[in-house]
Amino acid sequence: TGMDPFKTHGAFSWCELDTPDPKAAVSFYSELFGWTVEKMDMPDGPYHVLKAGDASVGGVMASPPEAKGKPPMWNCYVTVDDIDATAKRCASLGGKVLAGPLDIPTVGRMAVMQDPQGAVLSAITYKMDD
């Protein structure tokens, strides 16, 4: 068995595309990479889970109305043991916490951070059902 990216501190574990046209994006990436898609109904609209074989590797969601005019963009998540400590450390290292830490029901707790050069990356502590 290999490393579990959802439990390993420092591992990239999820990528998510925020786009005004999820249907077109899902169609493009399915053709490009051979991903299959599992649609989940969420309170804010459908969420499309991207799968490589049996493994869920990412998701596609519609941009929220307040993001009108923002270009589509991928957001990557890094697993961390303690998102609150990681967010504090980000700020102490000269980065900025743009959102969170905040809870995602049934998934975990995440924050969106920006490094001193301006690159944006999210980190997440997954809620593991024991």
Report on this structure.
The protein is of the alpha+beta class and 130 residues long. The protein is 17% helix and 47% strand. The chain contains 2 helices and 8 strands. It has helices at residues 22-33, 83-92; strands at 12-19, 36-42, 45-52, 55-62, 73-79, 96-104, 108-114, 120-126. The protein has an 8-stranded mixed β-sheet with strand order 2-3-4-1-5-8-7-6, covered by helices on one side. The longest helix is centred in the first third of the chain and has 12 residues, at 22-33. The mean pLDDT is 91.
Per-chain topology:
Blueprint: E1 12-19, H1 22-33, E2 36-42, E3 45-52, E4 55-62, E5 73-79, H2 83-92, E6 96-104, E7 108-114, E8 120-126
Parallel strand pairs: 1-4, 5-8
Antiparallel strand pairs: 1-5, 2-3, 3-4, 6-7, 7-8
